[in-house]
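ENTRY TYPE: paired fold submission
RECORD: A
CONTENT: sequence, then structure tokens
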Amino acid sequence: MNGRRGGTRFRLYPQSPDLAGFEEPEVVEVSPPPGAIAAGPADRVMYVVDAFDKRHHYEDDYGPPYRGPTLPPALPGPDGHFDHIPTSDRAFLSAHMYGSVRFVLDIWEGYLGRPIWWYDPRAEFQVELVPEVDWDNAHAGVGFIETGGRVNRAGDYQPFALNFDVLAHEVGHTVLFSELGLPNLDTLTGDFLAYHESVSDVIALISALHFEAVLDDLIRQTGGNLYVLNWLNRIGELSATEQIRVASNEAHLQDLDGLTLGTDGEWHDPSGEGRKAHDLSQPLTGAVFDALIEIYQDGLVRRGVIDPAWDARNWTRADVEASLAELQSRSGDALLHHEDAFVDALREARDTLGQMVALTWLGLSPHDLTLDEIAAAFLDSAEIVGQQHNQQAFAEDLAARGFDIPRGVGRQRRRRPLPPPRSAPYAARAAWAQAQASAGSRVEIAADRRQFDGLYRMINHDFRI
């Protein structure tokens, strides 16, 4: 899933570089071969433009292409790679943004087994990536992703273009729009917008686990016991004490009763707390994170590295809390002798959950979408990827968070085969773009462009702590 062998090298920060243990970027390979990515970086599908002093983010009728002054692009080395650029060089910002977006696309095209076409592709269509705009936020829209930055509580400015989680979250929105499609204005639900936020957080979480050094660091940091709080479940972490959202959360749908999306496109929160799609997404995100732990623990038991008597999956919350110290001790002891097995179990859990998430999209319609329907489709995907033995546990995790789970979770409303083996996504996408350009055709912007822009505005990318 790490690009493809023989791809182009970039250096990426798996988490914010201000976090202990992540001060140095890691070398990864993305799918385009050396020489296929031009200065910018740029390829046939996306390009980075480092806008100089861009004071307004894109919105309404203001969008790409950017035509103002720019800073110098990131240049490939003589070997066609981009891993030579110093982190202190301004061009590293552009390289990091492109490399992160491409890396996430490679990962999820791998799970789907085919290319992901950006929403509303046209002949010579390219997505514009803007790494720095004067804005305490980040967002994506038709034909662009752009990021600002934030001063954290310690007073340090952190550009979101160097925050892999934030970039992966934005790519997540583009992926889901491309795969799930658009509802009509009269079939749009608050649950659809909440699902967008949940999927984007999960895409960020799973994508971060594709850094090999991160897998090792996570296992060692937790002693192999993922029940403890760790950086993995802190989405968009900004410092040791600040994060945007927490995947391992206690959110319950009952706590969100009355939170609705009005016909005017505004959220209405009877609690007066101003909660929106991000908040409504948390029970689902938490349940998906629970599934990751279920699959991981199951893998440890199958590998014989933890005693089945100390498999906490069937314990009550009180049992786990009462025995957490002993669980940690036993997990740490096993890790001393079987570290490779722990990492392998986590890698397996990552890819199994990634496939389940991707397959869930194939069984859903964007129209009148509900969270209960999403939960049912997620359970269906478990059977497709061979997780029937954990399906009941997934259902119980969802039910514990307030989802209405029908009896007989393996009902398989829509049975689908697994995706084919991973194709070469860059080659396929580039060939498509070239064919469109050669034919001289131009697909006009979809008639629902205004609706699409409106949906993006409704998805509130408000990264407030």
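RECORD: B
CONTENT: sequence, then structure tokens
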Amino acid sequence: MRIEPISNTCRQSVLNRIAGYCLALTLAIVAQDTAESSATTLHDYVAHAMRANPAIAALRSKVASAGYAVKLSTALPEPSLSAGYFISEVETRVGPQRAKLGASQNIPWPGKLQAQRGVAEANAAATHQELETARTELAAAIADVYAALYATGRAISISHDNLKLLRYMERVLRTRYAAASVAQTSVLKVQVEAAVLDDNISSLGSRAATQRERLKALLGGEFTRPIDFPHELPDLAPDPAQDALIDSLKLLNPALQRAAFLTLHAERNVTLAKAALAPDFMLMTDYIITEETSSSMVTPGENGKDPWIIGLSFTLPLRITTNASEISQARALRAQAAAGEKDLRNTLSARAVEFYRHYHDTQRKIALYESVLVPKARQTLSLLQEAYANSQATLLDFLDAQRRLLDLEIEYARLQAQLLQTTGRLDMLTGGAKLLSKADYSTPVSRETDL
């Protein structure tokens, strides 16, 4: 289709309006909003989630419970008290015995309580690392949704700018169609393009609502402040050296540290199972109440004298076969824990390498979009604007160029979000040093507390 010639005045007006819209669209992409904004940052969201997320609160209570278990692990068993009354009194030389009072205390073999404490301490350490793992995973999940919200917001903004341009073109073409200077198909093409873009904006709005609900759930479900589209994304660039990244993972990853403590827990269970072979002791004491006798053969100093007995007993380790099975079971669990720790280390290292390479691949693509694809697409659209205004290009060519630029700019925003998502996952693998560094979650506060 060839566009019919139009007057120089009309041509210049169309060209100026289109150039104005495209300039606004370009500035929206290449420049950040310089006005001060009260939008909540990623670190604000992470800090709030560390205080209000119920899963984190549950694990915090679990850690406290494990700490109390350490204190209780070395407590001696409760002592026993006994009392008895002789219905048929026992006649003795110094008088009849009427009642008896007694006390006993179980005492484990030396080393058993220390072994129990070692098991409890390893379990408490593993539980603490479970909490740290949940924190890093939650922070990475928030970064993931935050980045997705950024990409959705940019897509909506870019699409709205393009829709404004299409609406203006539609009005111009409708005027020219009324003057019989363009065919009806030109108007219909722009209307179809605008309708499709408007539907895409509605779909993006629905996606944004879903992302906000997901973020709200991560924040504890009772976040009252508005969740706006982010204006910018933080830089969470990982260590530039892959080997250094792997070393950091092995030292700082809480899931790997938890696996190491579980291995230690299993090792100390073996020690505890071996200690069960040793006997336990019981210290006992009895005091017998004796009445005085009327016998003249008993001296006053001995008459009615109450005897006091001290005794010691110990268990006989006769469950040798059963205990041997318990030791074998503990050793098998230790081997299982050690193998699981090694497998987790290998898996996490492979994931770190995958994310690291994905990070650099995304960086390469972003550089390509910044320096080549988006600028050339803008240049192409600018040239087609002039060609279309001079009746040297078809409307379809212009619409194709505009749609291509729209897709590239939306993909560019998606790649920026993808870069943050990847670095968030890398930060999770290395202990959350960047995402959690500014999150003050040491003191739990009420969910109604503002950020």
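NOTES ON RECORD B: The mean pLDDT is 85. The domain at 8-76+126-277+321-429 is CATH 1.20.1600.10 (Outer membrane efflux proteins (OEP)).
STATUS: closed
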